[in-house]
């Protein structure tokens, strides 16, 4: 049974998309011990998830519709998975492509696709004219895209959001101008 406090926590996190324990303590005006007790219970019953490491730990609502995650997959990633993934289940069923990969992920307790959506949290700060995002790796561009989307959602940039990835070794770096 959910308490009024846990309902308030769920409502607050749903509205903000993610929240820190400090935000919840300030919002609820109750002791840290009481908030952490509620958070532990909500995590335990699968309603919320905990992301990050101290001192930056965020709580968010757990996805309940695994098939909705397919919409997150980049088209090129879907094409790669569909063309290269085959799973034969212990029961002998043949699952190809995204269906097989999704099944494997669920059996192993993994997200269908590890995107920046669940790992990047933007705190409310003063808005800026332009923002430069710097990353040390380039892949699909999901980190840049998700970070930029979250910055835009919070109206923290009035101008351009520019992504810069610096990759290489200690012997020399290459600056990628296109992602």
Q: List the helices and strands in order.
A: HHHEEHEEHEHEE
> Overall 3D geometry?
flat
Q: Give the beta-strand count.
A: 7
Largest sheet: 3 strands, mixed
How much β-strand is present in the residues? 15-25%
Distance between the termini: 48 Å
Helix content: 25-40%
Count of runs of 4 or more consecutive helical residues: 6
Give start-end ranges of low-pLDDT stretches: 64-69
Radius of gyration: 20 Å
* Number of individual domains: 3
Q: Numbering strands along the chain, what is their spatial order in the largest sheet?
A: 5-6-7
The mean pLDDT is 76
Class by SSE composition: alpha+beta
Descriptive overview:
By secondary structure, the protein is an alpha+beta fold. The protein folds into three domains: 4-61, Orthogonal Bundle (Arc Repressor Mutant, subunit A), CATH 1.10.10.10; 66-107, no CATH class; 116-176, no CATH class. Helices cover 37% and strands 21% of the residues. It is built from six helices and seven strands. The chain has helices at 4-16, 21-28, 32-44, 75-84, 97-107, 142-153, and strands spanning 48-53, 56-61, 86-88, 94-96, 131-135, 161-169, 172-176. The strands form three sheets. The chain has a three-stranded mixed beta sheet, with helices on one face. Strands 1-2 form a two-stranded antiparallel sheet. A two-stranded antiparallel sheet has the order 3-4. It is flat, with a radius of gyration of 20 Å.
